[in-house]
Amino acid sequence: MTDDGPDNGGNTGADAARGAELDQARLQSWLKTHVAGFSQLSSVTKFAGGQSNPTYRLDTPERRYVLRRKPFGPLLPSAHAVEREYRLIGALYPTDVPVAKPYALCEDDDVIGSAFYVMDMVEGRTFWRGDLPDCTPQERGPIYRSMIEALATLHNVDPVAAGLGDYGAPGNYFERQVRRWTKQYRASQTDEIAEVERLIEWLLTTLPPQGRTAIIHGDYRIDNLIYAPDSAAIRAMLDWELSTLGDPLADFAYLAMNWAMPHGDRGAQLGGLDLDALGIPSLDTATRIYCERTGMTDVPDLNWYFAYNLFRLVGIVQGIKKRMIDGNASSAEAERTVARLVPLAQQAWRFAQAAGARG
Question: What predicted TM-score, i.e. pTM, was given to this entire model?
Answer without folding.
Answer: 0.86
